[in-house]
Amino acid sequence: MDEPKAMVVLTSGKQDRGTRATLALSWACSALALGKKTSIFMTMDGTVWAMDGAMKGIQVDGFEPLGNYFEQFRALGGRLLVCAPCSDYYCASDGKAPNGRLVEGAELVGLATVVSEVEPGSVVVSF
User: For 103, which DSSP code?
Assistant: First the structure.
């Protein structure tokens, strides 16, 4: 039997100066390092972190810079899913996206993709 999948749901944007995003990405990196196939689903305000340049300069005391966790996440084979309608709503129209481009490897998806990732025995955490 395959190892259960892990999914991190990130709904928080920059209102907490990157604390929840840092915890989400560090948790996901830990899961990947332990051999769990792991995805992050960025939705609602959390979609801002999928925009190229959004992680620049974000570092929570006691943690590495947010961008470092993202690079580790990608290097470990994590899958970054971004809610397509949320990205349009939360990022495109209000200037939150530094340059309007997604980070490398991000996938714009609908809810059916997210639901298909969650299987019996999957671990799902939310930040």
Answer: P
Q: How far apart are CA 45 and CA 74, in angstroms?
A: 21
| Residue 89 DSSP SS3 | helix
Residue 7, pLDDT > 50, answer yes
Query: What is the model's pLDDT at position 95?
Result: 52
Burial of 14 (0-12, 13-18, 19+ CB in 10 A): middle
Nearest-angstrom CA–CA distance, 126 and 11: 8
Q: At what angle do helices 19-33 and 66-75 cross, to 10 degrees?
A: 30
Q: How far apart are the first and last CA of the chain?
A: 29
Q: Is 88 helix (H, G, I), strand (E, B) or coil?
A: helix
Q: All domains of the chain, ordered by start, with CATH?
A: 6-126 (3.40.1260.10)
Tell me the pLDDT of the chain averaged across its residues: 91
pLDDT in tens, 66-92: 999 999 999 999 999 999 988 887 776
| 97 has a pLDDT exceeding 50 | no
